[in-house]
């Protein structure tokens, strides 16, 4: 019996699933099981691969080799491993987590590892990094509505918890 997958399958709707194994990024075709190694970085541990909604690129976290304290970059690469670009102009000291693409695949939201800030990185490099939030935490993962104009954020201030919708154009 042949396994049937709903077309198209995968987060990026391209049939591929991205994952990490032994510190490197891989993609697998969910329909036929073909695996391709995307990164080969024995000195560092690449982590948290996330497909862009258009399926053309993968974003992931890469620690800066030998950094103390930990500093990480956001790297964007094609699913075949080509055209790797560091989109974080300066490594983020303390590290990152929760990468989330914009619906148009043009930017990436990232949360500081200690949840103290949320930033917006322009994948093209044309715009500077935008601070979306400080003194808060991303609500599970930063969440954006389909038009990408806002982000849902949890915030803790003075011991009080709240959930807010932050407009990215007006703050």
Please explain how this structure is put together:
- By secondary structure, the chain is an all-beta fold.
- 0% of the residues lie in helices and 49% in strands.
- Strands 4, 5, 6, 7 and 8 form a five-stranded antiparallel β-sheet that branches.
- About 4% of the residues have low confidence.
List the helices and strands and how they pair.
Blueprint: E1 16-21, E2 24-29, E3 35-37, E4 47-51, E5 58-63, E6 71-77, E7 85-86, E8 92-93, E9 96-101, E10 107-112, E11 117-122, E12 130-134, E13 136-143, E14 150-157, E15 160-167
Antiparallel strand pairs: 1-2, 2-3, 4-5, 5-6, 6-7, 6-8, 9-10, 10-11, 11-12, 13-14, 14-15
Helix content: under 10%
Largest sheet: 5 strands, antiparallel
**Strand fraction band?**
over 45%
**Broad shape:** globular
Report the mean per-residue pLDDT as an integer.
Answer: 83
The ordered H/E elements are EEEEEEEEEEEEEEE
Beta strands, count: 15
Structural class: mainly beta
Radius of gyration over C-alpha positions, nearest whole angstrom: 17 Å
Low-confidence stretches: 5-10
Distance between the termini: 53 Å
Separate helix tally: 0
